[in-house]
Write a structure and sequence with these properties.
Elements: H1 3-9, H2 11-28, H3 36-57, E1 62-64, E2 69-71, H4 73-96, H5 103-122, H6 126-146, H7 152-181, H8 189-195, H9 198-216, H10 224-231, H11 234-240, H12 243-258, H13 265-284, H14 290-310, H15 318-342, H16 355-358, H17 360-374, H18 380-394, H19 398-423, H20 428-433, H21 441-459, H22 461-467
Antiparallel strand pairs: 1-2
Helix pairs in contact: 2-3, 2-5, 3-4, 3-5, 4-5, 4-11, 4-12, 4-15, 4-21, 5-6, 5-12, 6-7, 7-8, 7-9, 7-10, 9-12, 10-11, 10-14, 11-15, 12-14, 13-14, 13-19, 14-15, 14-18, 14-19, 15-17, 15-18, 15-21, 15-22, 17-19, 17-21, 18-19, 18-21
């Protein structure tokens, strides 16, 4: 493939990269009190990115730069979902971070982090995977560290330490697989691992998976997620619980497709999925801080996504189901954090007592988002979870399908506890202590929009599945 064709195939990613550089330069020459200009430019960059991404959807599948990056329907939908998420995040940042001395840097880090996620999700080469992992991780550390909360330094340090260790493990796994296959291309892993000693192949794959599980926020590399969600800006929390997971889960799916089909890797992913969803739900049951609750909730949601990935070798419907689930999870999870951004001082469940009387629209949006994460019709996650149970059963993983259903019922307990507080009678002292700050109308409108989007995507699940192949 020619250099021109490769550049054309990766045009959306290049738009984000050049846009991040432009925002960095513009921020350096813009007075601190006028950093909103950088946000406007970042928004225009994301719109241009979305335009090129949509154009890429109508083109046939291809590869770029010696088949190290694949542009197919999965990459195309990932681009669209990430682009839409970036627009939501930029609007949230305008409500929450406007006027901060490092406002422009936040926009640059969001664009660079998203670009790294796209590389991770679209690559079919171990070397590019390592580069994408680093590009997706370093901006994440910066976003958490820039947050103004008292817990931000500890959260950033914990995320960095676990991320650095996971990156080393991922690079070690890539090195082992390169040594066995004699190539960094995914296409050569099947033969390379099949001819290699079992222990060596297992070590390489497991090490690679551990690194990707950090980006996904899944067990066993999940300990940083609740602290990072609690200790950072809502904008940052929304980013780290949504965008990196999309690319990481898709990367795990691509890796699983490249491994020998008769191997035990689908079973390993299924076990990781079961543990992640169960640990996340059980931990969320005990949380009173709503951010930590959502942090543990996202860990459980990754478990459901990995359950679909485990079904890849055994079900043809698994791939479109995963792509639908990624889009459904993104819009629903962003809706939860948009609600938090609209009421930032309500950090504990008890603070939400009686909120339905004062802000019925916001509580309605929260209800749609939380019940959407459970999988309540007609939301998009409902369709995705029904299909998840179907594809895992079809792939011979009946026990995993049962666990998906059981964990879905278990998650109702903590989501309903939050909603019950919203509609209960307020305590006078609590009502006096917690007041919603003015000027968060954009976040509230985003919450309404995400709620509508979660329902609309559920109603339009058929066309989305057809687009996903």
């Amino acid at each position: 493939m020619s250099m021109t064709s490769s550049v054309t195939a990766l045009l959306p990613e290049l738009v984000l990269l050049l846009g991040a550089v432009l925002c960095l330069l513009l921020g350096s020459w813009t007075p601190r009190l006028r950093q909103h200009r950088v946000r406007v430019v970042a928004g225009l960059v994301v719109l241009a990115f979305l335009g090129t991404a949509v154009l890429g959807l109508v083109r046939p599948s291809t590869t770029a730069f010696s088949a190290t990056f694949t542009v197919d329907e999965a990459t195309g939908l990932l681009r669209v979902v990430v682009g839409a998420a970036l627009l939501v995040l930029l609007l949230l940042a305008g409500d929450e971070i406007a006027g901060h001395p490092r406002e422009s840097e936040v926009y640059v880090l969001l664009l660079l982090g998203a670009d790294g996620v796209l590389l991770v999700g679209g690559t079919t080469d171990l070397a590019v995977l390592v580069v994408g992992f680093l590009l997706a991780s370093i901006p994440l550390y910066g976003l958490i560290g820039l947050s103004t909360t008292a817990a931000a330094p500890e959260a950033a340090l914990k995320t960095y330490l676990i991320g650095a260790l996971s990156g080393i493990v991922l690079m070690l796994g890539a090195s082992v697989l390169f040594g066995l296959a004699g190539s960094t291309a995914y296409a050569d892993l099947d033969a390379g691992i099949g001819d290699a000693p079992v222990a060596a192949g297992a070590a390489g794959v497991v090490l690679l998976l551990v690194g990707l599980l950090f980006k996904a926020g899944a067990v066993p590399a999940h300990f940083w997620v609740p602290d990072a969600v609690q200790g950072s800006w809502v904008t940052t929390a929304a980013f780290l619980t949504t965008v990196p997971k999309l690319g990481a889960v898709l990367a795990i799916a691509r890796l699983l497709e490249a491994l020998p089909r008769e191997s035990v890797w689908p079973t390993l992913v299924a076990v990781l999925a079961a543990v992640s969803m169960t640990v996340g739900n059980l931990a969320a049951l005990t949380q009173d801080d709503v951010r930590r609750l959502l942090g543990w909730s996202t860990i459980s949601q990754v478990g459901y996504l990995l359950a679909v990935v485990a079904a890849f070798p055994g079900s043809e419907l698994a791939r479109p189901t995963l792509l639908l689930f990624l889009a459904a999870y993104a819009v629903t999870n962003l809706g939860c954090f948009a609600v938090l951004a609209a009421a930032p001082d309500r950090t504990r469940i008890d603070h939400w007592r009686g909120t339905a009387r004062r802000r019925p629209g916001l509580v309605a949006a929260l209800g749609v988002a939380l019940l959407g994460l459970v999988g309540t019709p007609p939301t998009a996650v409902f369709v995705a979870k029904v299909l998840t149970i179907a594809v895992t059963w079809d792939a011979g993983l009946a026990w995993l399908a049962v666990l998906v259903a059981a964990n879905t019922v278990l998650s109702l307990a903590y989501y309903l506890r939050w909603l019950a507080a919203c509609i209960s009678a307020p305590r006078e002292q609590a009502e006096a202590d917690v007041a919603d700050p003015p000027g968060r109308l954009t976040s509230a409108r985003l919450a309404y929009g995400c709620a509508v989007g979660a329902v609309a995507l559920g109603l339009a699940a058929g066309p989305v599945l057809a687009l996903a192949g």
